[in-house]
Fold this sequence. Notes:
Elements: E1 3-9, H1 29-36, E2 42-48, E3 84-88, H2 107-113, E4 116-124, H3 126-139, E5 143-152, H4 159-168, E6 172-174, H5 176-179
Parallel strand pairs: 1-2, 1-4, 2-3, 4-5, 5-6
Amino acid sequence: MEKKALIIVDVQNDFCPGGALAAPEGDKVVPVINKLVDQFDYVLASKDWHPADTVHFQKWPVHCVAGTPGAEFHPDLRTDKIDQVLLKGTGNKDDGYSAFEATNVDLAEWLRAHEVDEVYVTGLTTEYCVKSTALDAVKNGFRTFVIRDAVRPVNPADEEAAYRDMEAAGIQVVTSSDVLQPA
């Protein structure tokens, strides 16, 4: 039997409106993701979890510093169904764009150990962490989907190019209505 995992990428306060590196309408993914979590065998969620002195902040505004309110999940995100939290970007010299770069869990190994065949990626941001996570899922041999209405870009001008790159790699772009099963 095929097992499916939902990966929620970085739905954290700093990536939502009012945050240090907000994706426009980043909070709009929360109700969509909340509807999706019951549809999957497993739910995993990544967090940027940067040290305050990371070189990552030479490229980006300071965001998602480990242990700060900005690094916490959006308060409306359903966390009761999360089986594993993946911490990424935890080193002074790592960007940690992909959830497969988590330092506390080997994500590919975790998914294989739980016999997952399909991975569905949601969250923030489309053109960076969502794209990196989806590309790494494909590289690790998982059938991979990105749920378009459950992701948002930090720079909307780069969104369509990100979708083209993902589709060229074999990632299927779907909507939540393609995934949701009737109750």
